[in-house]
Amino acid sequence: MTAPARVASGPAPDAPTDGARRPGVLAVALLLVVVTVGWRRGEYFTGSLDPVVLAKAGLSALALAGAFLLAASGPRLRLGTAWLWWLGVVLGCSVFGALASGDLAAGGTVAVRVAVLGATVHLLLRAAPGLQVVTALAVACGLVAAVAAVTGLPTLAEGRLAGGLPALSPNELSLLAGVVVLVLAWRTVLERAGWADALAGAAFLGVIWATGSRTGLLMLLVALAVMALYLRRPPVGLVVGGLLLGGLAVVGAATTGVVTAVVTRDGDGVGTLESRFIAWRAALDLPRSAWQEVFGGGMALKVIPIKGQWWDEQPLDSSWVSLLVQAGVLGLAVGLGWALWALRGAARTPRPVRVLFLGLLVFVVGRSTVESGMFDATPAFLLLAALSALAERGSADRLAAEAETLAPASPRSW
Predict the structure, then answer these.
(1) How many C-beta atoms surround the C-beta of residue 101 within 10 A?
(2) Which of 10, 182, 251, 389 has an alpha carbon 20 to 30 Å from 126's alpha carbon atom?
(3) Range of the domain at 256
């Protein structure tokens, strides 16, 4: 009797495509989201160990161990590895930069943390169907966002909804809720959505609105527009519900002035954007050696000094400016290539998968312009890692097999 062979090009008959591993996948995904969201607002890792840092490290190790056990306990699915090279170069640049800046302890620690998260995502994708992993990450985002929003309701008195437990910033909460809305929109395009999906989508849209995240809302609308291009036969209930919701939104905005309040938040119109421009200009003017120009100053560098203003320092608030400062010109070029490569790969995936992948990537990459974290230990990085790994050529066979199971089904009840 011969031993069963490992899977070489797609799931074998006994591959975990029947949902047998779904609880384990969801548990690991939930751990990943929990350790990548902020537990304290306005604080950044500087190299010192405290209970929060140690707790996150322990949970990250637990997630890695869980993913390893899932991958080792059954047939492994074929998965491309090119995305790991992109990640490796970005992290390598940041480590060299941290070494040159004398901040290897903090910068190296953050780089190792991101590498652990990348390895966990990779093992999880080897153990379970890609769409199961992506949807598990979305469910985990929804669970964390729901708890944070409910426990953070008192923050509405300050003007913007923020997380209570965990203490998410409004923009972080908007990101998690946006992921859920896009997955529900994908189910609608596949004609698999029902009233429960519509109610959940409306609730998370309300969360996004309450956070006051302008970029999050704008990029969500752009991503939904991209996904709508693949909508062949809009369900009658969806059209009617959308028109009613749109009409109510227009009436409410016109009578309450809420749109004006969001656009002119902080009382000075584009003050928030202007402050970001100040930080970006300061980032370009940072005194650096030739080595630091190429390799940056390390992943722990998230706040830079500001001159000529009434404040002394400011977060970078842009994944791309952050990458330039943290990983240098080389890291920025590689990160840009990675994002474009992922979008190109997503555009070549089978239609049922392409709808979801393009929507999520447009959302995440679009937000990265004015929000940090796409190449750091954040939920945005988890999505970039999972989607780019599945969209590359080495994962094409398994993804095509998964797409075959996503033929539009009869809508449940609209």
Answers:
(1) 20
(2) 182
(3) 22-231+243-400
Write out 43-89 in H/E/C secondary structure: CCCCCCCCHHHHHHHHHHHHHHHHHHHHHHCCCCCCCCCHHHHHHHH
Q: Is 154 part of any domain?
A: yes
Let me know if residue 11 belongs to a domain. Answer: no
Residue 273 lies in a domain: yes
How many separate domains does the chain show?
1
What gap in Å lies between CA 251 and CA 295, rounded to an integer?
52
Q: Is position 3 within any domain?
A: no
Per-residue pLDDT of the chain (414 residues; tens, 9 = 90+): 444 443 444 444 334 444 667 899 999 999 999 999 999 887 777 777 889 999 999 999 999 999 999 999 878 889 999 999 999 999 999 999 999 888 898 899 999 999 999 999 999 999 999 999 999 999 999 999 999 999 999 999 888 999 999 999 999 999 999 999 999 999 988 888 788 888 999 999 999 999 988 888 999 999 999 998 887 666 555 555 555 555 555 544 444 444 554 455 554 433 456 677 777 887 887 777 888 889 998 998 888 877 767 777 788 888 999 999 999 999 999 999 999 999 999 999 999 999 999 999 999 999 998 888 899 999 999 999 999 999 999 998 899 999 888 765 544 433
